[in-house]
Specification:
By secondary structure, the protein is mainly α. It has 22 helices and no strands. The protein has helices spanning 4-27, 32-40, 44-57, 63-73, 75-79, 90-104, 113-122, 131-136, 151-159, 166-192, 201-209, 212-218, 224-239, 245-258, 262-276, 286-308, 324-336, 339-342, 345-355, 360-382, 385-392, 397-414. The chain is globular and about 65 Å long.
Length: 429
Amino acid sequence: MSLARPLLALALAHLTGSLLRALPSLMRGRALREALVGPVTSPASALVAVALLHGASLGLAGAPLAVALVAALLVPLRTHEHEVFPAPERNSWVLAAALLLAILARPMVPTCWDEFVWLGKARFESEGFGAGVRAALDPSAHLMPPGYPTLWPAAAGWLALGADDLGALTAGASLLVFLTLVTFGERLERACAEVPRRPDFFLAVGVVLAAPLVLVHARTTYVDLPLGLLGAALFLEIASARPSAIVAASLATLLVGLKDEGAAHLLAAVVAGAFARPSPRTRPPHALLLAIATGTLALVTWQALVSAHGIGRDHGGFAPNLAWIASLPLLLVRHASEITSWGLFWPAVVAFAVAGRHDRRTRALLLALAVNLLCVFAMLVAGPPRVRAFAANGTLLNRVLVQLWPLAVALLLTSPPRGTREVRRPSLP
């Protein structure tokens, strides 16, 4: 019964998002069934609905964000283009089903420290829609951590249909992890179709299994993996030949609504995505511009609300320690080379990066990884001492690597084989 509510809610969110994505086609006179075929097969449709709910949960302050998302939704009417929905392959459905079973085959109770925090805050939604936001903006509530974005626990509560049931909340958050995985997979499958030689399906499965720590995170409701998946999905969306404005805008909104680090992932995705465009000298696509606009609007709205209500920030403070600049690379290498957590995943990423260094897509992915790492380094060097203590004690950098794993997977699977010349995709109007 705990699983029934989240599954029903996810189906409703997916149907709502599908109808919204089909709206431009319906307004052009296409039949409902024909207009819905593509959106229904796209897992990103559910995320469109979640992004709009996030705007609504912020109350009147979230109205501009909701308007920006609706504007992104209606872009196809202005450009006279149809949103592209590549048909997923049969193997993709098999892999998605296996992932769903693996994710749901876990105890439907908190099993790790952060799960108690996230799922505890998800209970607020049983008091009414947006109750989590109201509690986070109430100084007397003393939520931990203070000033933190509310989307993840709120979305888990929405998928529990407002039930104050721990099993339903855990299942809802687990389904959110699955949703981010398959959305990233959808974008990655399209990107793989654009490389000179498509990677083998079993190679893709092997890449997933090569990093044991990621499998652990996939079966928890920690937000590090979903954050990285959405950031990489946004990069792949912007870098594609026909990006979707509403998907890009929704991904950008979700990124900054999940965690403080979402702003860094947004920056990396838009900078590297713009660099990866097949014809960077042409006019930027609507998807890129709307991702920047909606992501910035979501970020500014939340930070303004936090400041207006006098809420402190958990990661606030400025206490630079320049001596840390020399020790950070060594710490990162020590974490990335830990065999039981990562196997040989990161050495393989380095080897593929060197081999594909002349390919524009590979260089763009390296740029995205670099921007993320630079933001982390800046936070550690200039931030409060306790953040550096987290890194030194081993509780931070591995989670950063989990966030970067999706970008590294995209690099492994889209990097052209050695000796392959870069294939330039034709620019589209």
